[in-house]
């Protein structure tokens, strides 16, 4: 089977590519990635020479190129992860999110339909999406697969739009699609513009740790390798046309999570207890900041037998160790345009 994985040089995509290349030697895995600021082939050096792996540098927003690529390689399946993924960037540059997340997804859907239209048997178009499409929760309740869409940031609106297009291709053309909506991931290869890696990097370098607003917003954190395992399950066992919610059953208020990270780093770096907490700096809140996300994962657990393999303590331990041991990776990704962006944002 020839599988096209988009966005495989990014955070989650790199773990999915590694899992599929190593677990399924009979599959041919093609990783299509534009290598934006968020794409990094250093994430995949351990598998780059595998005989069943091919990297293709390319842009999903280029419709003609995408059509040609599908005709050339005759893919049997698509796992679509390429996206602009950072909410703060969507506030400063929403059009980039429309181009990649909406137009890019539509280009892939169109190319898959055209290639497979004479016979959809055994084909899969699997779209990887986010819990943010459901909007923001109050203190109670959880997102289920039936929760009404209510996206509130340009990022979540672009992902919601792409989800709708995927389902429209299922209902209109019969394209064999699957969708999953996942909560916040954390783990190795996470770009340090996102909360956990940003905090770890700043604590390590004795820089301020920015907490938006009062730090009362709540996120449900899942170890990235458990998300990759869930993607494997949905790809192989998920029902055509269905949606699966994936979450960690692991809600944390941002400020409590930051305190925990500071305390772990104090221990790891042999600092006096309480030293890193002094770096916490409350900054202007994110515009339209969603208060709380929480995912009800009972469908994927009951129907596909998936459950997280590590506790939050274990996952964080692995994550902190990875960031402390991968100084060169951090230095590479924190140079250049990201640094400029971060300085601009943090100056708010
Ligand atoms: P990421 O930003 O780390 O990686 C995105 C990848 O897509 C990068 O490698 C980038 O180079 C590539 N890309 C961007 N634009 C492209 C284009 N036009 N053409 C080809 N490649 C392009 O993102 P991530 O955090 O790994 O997220 C992957 C997917 O999972 C996204 O669709 C995201 O919406 C979804 N998701 C993420 C999370 C999370 O917590 N990070 C949670 C749920 C869902
Ligand atoms: O829920 C899934 C989503 O999780 C994914 O779809 C997105 O791609 C991913 O980026 C993530 O979105 P969030 O906005 O929740 O993640 P982020 O790490 O940017 O922020 C987590 C929380 O921390 C959020 O409430 C904002 C807050 N925050 C973030 C940063 C970067 C801070 O307080 N300070 C910061 O410096």
TrEMBL record:
<comment type="similarity">
    <text>Belongs to the NAD(P)-dependent epimerase/dehydratase family. dTDP-glucose dehydratase subfamily.</text>
</comment>
<dbReference type="GO" id="GO:0009225">
    <property type="term" value="P:nucleotide-sugar metabolic process"/>
</dbReference>
<protein>
    <recommendedName>
        <fullName>dTDP-glucose 4,6-dehydratase</fullName>
        <ecNumber>4.2.1.46</ecNumber>
    </recommendedName>
</protein>
<dbReference type="InterPro" id="IPR016040">
    <property type="entry name" value="NAD(P)-bd_dom"/>
</dbReference>
<dbReference type="GO" id="GO:0008460">
    <property type="term" value="F:dTDP-glucose 4,6-dehydratase activity"/>
</dbReference>
<dbReference type="Pfam" id="PF16363">
    <property type="entry name" value="GDP_Man_Dehyd"/>
</dbReference>
<feature type="domain" description="NAD(P)-binding">
    <location>
        <begin position="4"/>
        <end position="319"/>
    </location>
</feature>
<dbReference type="InterPro" id="IPR005888">
    <property type="entry name" value="dTDP_Gluc_deHydtase"/>
</dbReference>
<keyword id="KW-0456">Lyase</keyword>
<keyword id="KW-0520">NAD</keyword>
<dbReference type="InterPro" id="IPR036291">
    <property type="entry name" value="NAD(P)-bd_dom_sf"/>
</dbReference>
């Amino acid at each position: 089977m020839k599988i096209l994985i988009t966005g495989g040089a990014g955070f989650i995509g790199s773990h999915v590519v590694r899992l599929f290349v190593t677990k399924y030697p009979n599959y041919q895995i093609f990783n299509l990635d534009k290598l934006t600021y968020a794409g990094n082939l250093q994430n995949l050096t351990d598998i780059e020479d595998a005989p069943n792996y091919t990297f293709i540098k390319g842009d999903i927003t280029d419709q003609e190129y995408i059509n040609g690529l599908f005709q050339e390689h005759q893919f049997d399946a698509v796992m679509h992860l390429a996206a602009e993924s950072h909410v703060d960037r969507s506030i400063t540059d929403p059009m980039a999110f429309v181009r990649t997340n909406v137009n890019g997804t539509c280009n892939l859907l169109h190319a898959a339909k055209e290639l497979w239209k004479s016979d959809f048997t055994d084909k899969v178009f699997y779209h990887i999406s986010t819990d943010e499409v459901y909007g923001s929760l109050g203190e109670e309740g959880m997102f289920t697969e039936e929760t009404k869409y209510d996206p509130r940031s340009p990022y979540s609106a672009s992902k919601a739009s792409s989800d709708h297009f995927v389902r429209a291709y299922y209902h209109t053309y019969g394209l064999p699609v699957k969708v999953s909506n996942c909560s916040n991931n954390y783990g190795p290869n996470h770009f340090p513009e996102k909360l956990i890696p940003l905090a770890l990097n700043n604590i390590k370098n004795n820089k301020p740790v920015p907490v938006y607003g009062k730090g009362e917003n709540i996120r449900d954190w899942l170890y990235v390798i458990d998300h990759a395992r869930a993607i494997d399950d949905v790809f192989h066992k998920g029902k055509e046309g269905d949606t699966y919610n994936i979450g960690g059953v692991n809600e944390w208020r941002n400020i409590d999570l930051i305190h925990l990270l500071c305390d772990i780093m104090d221990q790891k770096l042999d600092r006096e207890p309480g030293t890193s907490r002094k770096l916490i700096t409350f900054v202007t809140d994110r515009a339209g900041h969603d208060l709380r996300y929480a995912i009800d994962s009972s469908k994927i657990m009951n129907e596909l037998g998936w459950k997280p393999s590590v506790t939050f303590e274990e996952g964080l331990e692995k994550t902190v160790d990875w960031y402390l041991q991968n100084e060169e990776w951090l230095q590479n990704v924190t140079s250049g345009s990201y640094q400029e962006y971060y300085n601009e944002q943090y100056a708010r």
